[in-house]
Amino acid sequence: MERFYFDLYNSEGPEMDREGQLFPTRDRARIEALRILHDVAHDEMPTGDLMVISVKVRDENRQQIFEASLTLASAWS
Questions:
Q1: Degrees, nearest 5: CA angle 40-13-57
Q2: How distant, in Å, are the alpha carbons of 10, 11, 60, 74 from that of 66?
Q3: C-beta neighbour count of 53 within 10 angstroms
Q4: Lowest CB count within 10 Å: 6, 22, 36, 37, which one?
Q5: Contact present, 41 and 70 (Cβ < 8 Å)
Q6: Which helix (H) or strand (E) holds 23?
Q7: How many other CB atoms are found less than 10 A from the CB of residue 18?
Q8: CA 4-24-5 angle, 5° bins
Q9: Which H or E element spans position 67?
Q10: What are the residue boundaries of the DUF6894 domain, all occurrences included (predicted)?
Q11: Are 17 and 33 spatial neighbours (Cβ–Cβ below 8 Å)?
């Protein structure tokens, strides 16, 4: 098992993961990052015209190994 850290970047600024979570593979950590991104996007449905959310994954050496981002832009025609 490896420890992965999931840092969240959204309209409230960065939230750094100091504890991390254990996963058997990098792919499982990737799936967790996408789940986090989905959950945060659902909770923060935009009240404005632009929403940008990113989850950056760091490995046991605290090196970034993966990033997933979601940008939602909305405007009346």
A1: 60
A2: 17, 20, 13, 27
A3: 20
A4: 22
A5: yes
A6: strand 21-23
A7: 7
A8: 5
A9: strand 64-73
A10: 3-71
A11: no
**Regions of the chain short of the pLDDT cut 50:** none
In angstroms, the Cα distances linking 52 to 22, 28, 60, 72 are 27, 23, 26, 6
In terms of pTM, does the model score above 0.85? yes
pLDDT at 45: 76
For residues 62-71, b (16+ Cβ closer than 10 Å) or e, as one string?
A: eeeebebeee
pLDDT at 46: 67
pLDDT of the residue at 11: 81
Two structure tokens written together for 48: 């404005």
